[in-house]
Amino acid sequence: MALLNEDQIQAYQDDGVIVIRNAVDSTWVEKLLKVAEQQLKTPGKWANDGSPGADTNRMFTDRYMWQSVEPIRDYVFNSPCAELAATAMQSESARFYFDHLLVKEPGTVSITPWHQDIPYWPFLGKQVCSIWLALTPATIAGSAMEFVRGSHNDNKYYQAEVFGKREDHPNSAWTGKSQAEPVPDIQANRADYDIIGWDVEPGDAVLFSSWILHWAGGNQSQTSRRAALSTRWLGDDAIWHPHSGADPTVNPEDVSVAPGQAPTDDRFFPKVWPTG
Predict the structure, then answer these.
(1) Closest by Cα among 18, 20, 15 to 149
(2) Model-wide pTM > 0.70
């Protein structure tokens, strides 16, 4: 199991993001790559597919699969991710929110624009994070993520916007409603920001705060896929905060907690760490 040292924990607190080399072993990577192939062929309800069936220039995402796709459920409950998330956040526990498969086929032009995650999700709290697991190699020059170091501590809550042009997709109904401040044009003014990122190999993970600004470019490779699986984690200070523009995968009427309460509903937000 990958363990975080004190320097990594402090780096997460200060920078809002760390890379963990060899966070999981190759067995997990192999299993999750098979899931990626399966979902590309048979997308789930919450998939977003810009070029269905294409072998190139295809940006594909699918999410909230853990309740129906056994390898993902296995990864959520039996990989080191929950403990890594709790340790980095300095939380006594880690609850799971959702999984998110992200694939950019060779030659994918579409970028993942600069954004922060927290406005998209029905939660508030500083102890909310993601673990982005590389399933294939990715470089900064290609399509690995980059981050504005320390932006998680700016106390900014930005507007959520639709990614791409799929206005017909059901996901488009839940973004663009916020009156919050738009994300600044970071890409046009990169020199004004402290931007960091890493080239990654399969099994490496990037652990980052839901409040940090981040993006990823298109996949410039003409031969290689970029695939990753993100898992989203809730720490001790997270509270249930359904709001206009929030992710609709969990219906507020179905959960057993009220707005402002800790998300202790194990049906939708199971406590994964510590076990027992």
Answers:
(1) 15
(2) yes
Domains of the chain by start residue, with CATH: 6-273 (2.60.120.620)
- For the segment 126-149, what is each residue's pLDDT rounded down to a tens digit? 999 999 999 999 999 889 999 999
Distance CA 114, CA 89 (A): 23
Report how far residue 107's alpha carbon sits from residue 84's, in angstroms, rounded to the nearest whole number: 33
> 226: part of which helix (H) or strand (E)?
strand 226-234
Phi, psi dihedral angles at 249 (to 5 degrees): -65, -30
User: Tokens in use for 99?
Assistant: 């999984």
What is the rounded distance in angstroms from the CA atom of residue 16 to the CA atom of residue 159?
19
CA distance 217 to 148: 15
Is there a contact between 126 and 258 (Cβ–Cβ < 8 Å)? no
Residue pair 139/104 in contact by the 8 Å Cβ criterion: no
